[in-house]
Amino acid sequence: QVQLVESGGGLVQAGGSLRLSCAASVSIFSIYAMRWYRQAPGKQRELVAAITIGGGTNYADSVKGRCTISRDNAGNTVYLQMISLKPEDTAVYYCNLVTMTSPRAQYWGQGTQVTVSS
Prior knowledge:
The structure is a single chain. The protein is built from no helices and 11 strands. It is mainly β. Strands 2, 4, 5, 6, 9, 10 and 11 form a 7-stranded mixed β-sheet that branches. The radius of gyration is 14 Å and the shape is globular. The N and C termini lie far apart (40 Å).
């Protein structure tokens, strides 16, 4: 069973920064991709950023230029650096892992709250 442990959320003023972390309980060889999603109250969960086994990244248009997804040398901890935060970034942020298995499986973290005050 894959476990994902998230940390780094909190309360920050608009214009501030936060760095979220997500540590997976499996090695990089089991990981196809790791992603960050977020869900604001009353809204659907949306993809924020993703990084694949090859290091390719993609971002939601709403966070491009303000968020950077990266991973550690071991490849099983992923970070989301967020700058110039806006109140509309307020949400619960979830880490997601897609496995290398066939078929692929997905696992979710417990979520970490990010609140941006105006």
